[in-house]
Design goal:
Strand content: under 5%
Oligomer: single chain
Distance between the termini: 26 Å
Helix content: 25-40%
Number of helices: 3
Shape: elongated
Radius of gyration: 12 Å
Order of helices and strands: HHH
């Protein structure tokens, strides 16, 4: 699998995702969704984020997850 596809399936609040949602537009910190914990982005909702993280772990990607 292409590594870009794996990154595109990470949570949209993970900075490694090409479609990372910039949280600067939120007016308060309470409004900013957290990656994986009660996140309702499509990738988290459908479990694609969890699978992408497992693929990265198995590939030996030691880069720490990047969340806002």
């Amino acid at each position: 699998m292409d590594i870009k596809k794996v990154y595109d399936n990470l949570c949209v609040y993970d900075k490694r995702n090409e479609f990372y949602q910039d949280t600067a537009s939120y007016t308060s910190k309470e409004d900013i969704p957290k990656a994986r914990d009660n996140c309702h982005c499509d990738n988290c909702f459908y479990g694609r984020d969890e699978l992408a993280l497992e693929i990265l772990r198995l590939r030996g990607d030691n880069e720490k997850e990047e969340t806002s």
